[in-house]
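pinging the channel bc i need a second pair of eyes. not urgent but kinda urgent?? the chain im working w is below, pasted from the shared doc
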Amino acid sequence: MYSLEVLSQDKQRISVKLKNIPLQYANALRRICLNGVPVFAIDTVDIIENSSVLADEGVAHRLGMIPLKTDLSKYVEPSNCECHSETGCSNCRVMLMIDSGDTDTTRTVMSGEITSEDDTVKPVSDKIPIVQIAPGQRIKIEAYARLGRGLEHAKWNASNIATLIPTEKEDEHVLTVETTGALSPERILVDGISELSKRLEEFKMLLAELK
């Protein structure tokens, strides 16, 4: 009899016991929880002003790697959006801005200074450093975030870690998923199960077509 039992759960991590689930399916679920559930990440950056010592590409890379809180009920992946536009629309992308302003002292620009057109899509923490600026230096940037999956780039990983460890009993494993903060760990697990089911159905259809 297949079963899933929650062993522990908090805001960052969930551990579940999987019983009598074939190892290949359990491991597929682990991989999907790691990089197969869509989350938001900054993908396009327009540099309006950057007089810091860090090159534009460096600033853009750091912005892209900041985990963003994600609301999957409001947005769709660009590939599934009705706009069919490379630039995206309000259903598949979110604009964020950052303007350090002028400074009289050397300071570090933090993720808490990023503003979003949708408050549900914003950095998971206000304390992520982006770049240090000195007096007379400034950064002003428009950025656009979209849903993506870690299979495309690690910045879209939903989880920091996803491990599968066997217990002392036969056909029993413990799956632990730790979120980046973009989604709750239980949402990652539930969506991971749905994604696995979807992929298995698609695989069955392909096999049927071969017959």
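so DSSP finds three helices and ten strands in the chain. and The chain has two domains: 13-37+167-210, 39-155. — does that match what u expected or am i reading it wrong
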